[in-house]
Amino acid sequence: MQTMENRYTHSPEDIRHYSTEQLRQEFLVEKVFTPGEICLTYTHNDRMIFGGVTPTTKELEITLDKELGVTYFLERRELGVINIGGPGFIEIDGQKEEMKKQDGYYIGKETKQVVFSSADSNNPAKFYISCVPAHHKYPNVKISIDQVKPMEAGEGLSLNERKIYQYIHPNVCDSCQLQMGYTILEPGSAWNTMPCHTHERRMEAYVYFDFAKEDTKVFHMMGKPDETKHLVVDQDQAVISPSWSIHSGVGTGNYSFIWSMCGENITYTDMDMVDMGDLK
Questions:
Q1: Is 110 annotated as a binding residue?
Q2: Is 146 left (phi over 0), alpha (psi -120 to 50) or beta?
Q3: Left, alpha or beta for 190 (phi > 0: left; psi -120 to 50: alpha)?
Q4: Is 44 annotated as a binding residue?
């Protein structure tokens, strides 16, 4: 089974008077991984498609030809994949490869078939995917977390010590506009991306997972720097972050998240930092 939900764009003025429920309906994706299903969200922010592919007893393949006005899914798009579940496999145009937890893949446009499967239906793989429009075909590249030298950021005293693994990034592989990475907070740290920033030239989506405890919650901060709002996020839920919005979070315990970005600039450091004194 495959589902895809549409989410439309909003200006900062749109959300000024939103209730908590309205904010959640527009920016929070509560169901990302469902065993045996493909759960996708199409955001009109830079036309990113993201979501979860969770195969159990059967192989799963994303089919979006009619929805995208193409003859096959990746005819005009590039795809990023990271497995955050049990061991699985990915078959790309007939070539099958093992995908253990924290393995990723960049798959270029014009790839005709991508099939996902799990090694054990009782411990299924959980493939998180991000897909964006592409203008050029770049080579497919498998990326393991073991191959990526992490950026070490933050410090324990600020409760934001973390490792940032850049999977789809110019330092690792070529892409048209997709960037994708994996951030792991150290035990005792709770904040990510604080001091916070915006980046007008690209949007971002987050999925939060590997919570320290079952009852861990993440408070995802969003909105304009001088008019902040928040979403309470559970395990395996995702957030859409427009280019004008800050995107920071604090948890009741440590956690991990995958970030994916697309837009006009693939320079990771192209961001507009927000002074802590300007936050309201």
A1: no
A2: alpha
A3: alpha
A4: no
Instruction: Return d(Cα 99, Cα 96) in angstroms, integer.
Output: 10
Specify the pLDDT at position 279. Answer: 81
What is the tens place of the pLDDT at every residue in 125-162?
999 999 999 999 999 999 999 999 999 998 999 899 99
Residues 6+ apart with CB under 8 A from 267: none
- Domain contains 179: yes
CATH number of the domain within which 215 lies: 2.60.120.10
Asked whether residue 70 is domain-assigned, the answer is yes
197 marked ligand binding residue: yes
Q: Residue 202 corresponds to which tokens in the numbers above?
A: 């690209």
The answer for residues whose C-beta is within 8 angstroms of residue 171's C-beta and 6 or more apart is none
Residue 230 annotated as binding? no
HEC letters along 230-280: EEEECCCEEEEECCCCCCEEEECCCCEEEEEEEECCCCCCCCEECCHHHCC
pTM tops 0.90, yes or no: yes
* Domain count for the chain: 1
Determine the structural domain holding residue 182 and report its residue range.
2-273
**Residue 143 resides in a domain:** yes
Instruction: With respect to residue 116, please indicate whether it lies within any of the assigned structural domains.
Output: yes
Task: Determine contact, residues 180/205, Cβ cutoff 8 Å.
Answer: no
